[in-house]
Design goal:
The chain is mostly beta strands. It has strands spanning 3-7, 10-12, 18-25, 33-39, 46-51, 57-59, 67-72, 77-82, 91-101, 104-110, 114-118.
């Protein structure tokens, strides 16, 4: 019953910044493992960043040092701040929520996606 809604996508020139936001409803947000994925045309969906229930962060090597994931359990939101954007960052970005017990995922939920385009 978890529903996810992404916002903040758009078009930006190389070197620019965007901030994506994902709002969750239908569950206790503080219990969810959250992540951002992206999928470029003709490519597989890939993990961008994740954040645990305790706020521990993991980043893809391709975005490490440029992107920051954060969560606000009071607002039921997870954000992705993207800086120094490159054309290769162009993709549809998806918010993901997972219910886990230890390292086992029980349920996975996906948002509808938001387009990020980085070009001159």
């Amino acid at each position: 019953q978890v529903q996810l809604g992404e916002s903040g996508g758009g078009s930006v020139q190389p070197g620019g910044s965007l901030r994506l936001s994902c709002a969750a409803s239908g569950s206790i947000f503080s219990t969810l493992y959250m992540a951002w994925y992206r999928q470029a045309p003709g490519k597989q969906r890939e993990l961008v960043a994740s954040i645990s229930t305790d706020g521990n962060e993991i980043y893809s090597d391709s975005v490490k040092g440029r992107f920051t994931i954060s969560r606000d359990n009071a607002k039921n939101t997870v954000d992705l701040e993207m800086n120094s954007l490159k054309p290769e960052d162009t993709a549809v970005y998806y918010c993901q929520a997972r219910i886990r017990v230890e390292m086992v995922t029980i349920f996975t939920y996906w948002g509808q996606g938001t387009q990020v385009t980085v070009s001159s």
